[in-house]
Fold this protein.
Amino acid sequence: MFTSDQHQLIDFGDGRRLERFGALMLDRPCPAADGVDRADPDAWRHADARFERSDNEEGRWLSERELPESWTVAHGSSRFELKRTPAGQLGVFPEQAGNWDWIAEQLNQSPRPAAVLNLFGYTGGSTLAAAAAGAEVVHVDAARNTIARARRNAELSGMSDAPIRWIAEDAVKFVKRELNRGNRYDAVILDPPSYGHGPRGEVWRFSKHLPRLLALCGRLTAGRRRFMLLTCHTPGYDPARLERMMIDALNDAEAGTITARPLGIRTAAGRELPCGVAVRWQHRV
């Protein structure tokens, strides 16, 4: 997990979340906090910036003082350059930190260097965790600007020369091509959006395309799979439903152990903000 000086959830409620990322405290919209009361109303007065969303899904950051254009936070040996974007994002999802720790644990137990495929790789948190644990990683994301940010994070983390391939491609197309080429992997990580587009306009819908992609990833790792990690932020998919999807796609649950549980972040007082679901398949020793 993040240490408290690098990231901390201060409070949430009334459809918003208040977090500290390094030196900055930020107030952002959060649908998961709708219908929930804030526990510490006074804390919100100390926010360095507040993001207000407009009708077109973008918006603007409001601040009473000049703030740095970018700054960094750390998780273990990984460094992330954060920026306040017009969509209200920063470049890191803190709820994934526990998964990064789990990825490192799985790879540290591997008897040989692993080949890891990270689909929908975003700014590289899982990629850096896997590379730091000695894996050879293929990082796939549809957005070239996002891959540029991931590569920047690798540089900041001292991993410029790590065995990472950076691929701007549609995830489904890439997996199909890898199967046709005879390439195989020991692990696959997936963090798919609810809806998105590939670099050539390919449409991704979680509800429609995920089962097929999971099945393809099962074939891509057949006979050598060490682990598979799926995270989901799409409403309507609870742990039980996603676990069933993973079992159906892999069709070899006896060879491994599957766990599915909610993702969340806790405040110092112990309140938990829901942030999705994580499904983990790991080889049964």
Remarks:
- The mean pLDDT is 94.
- The first helix runs from residue 97 to 108.
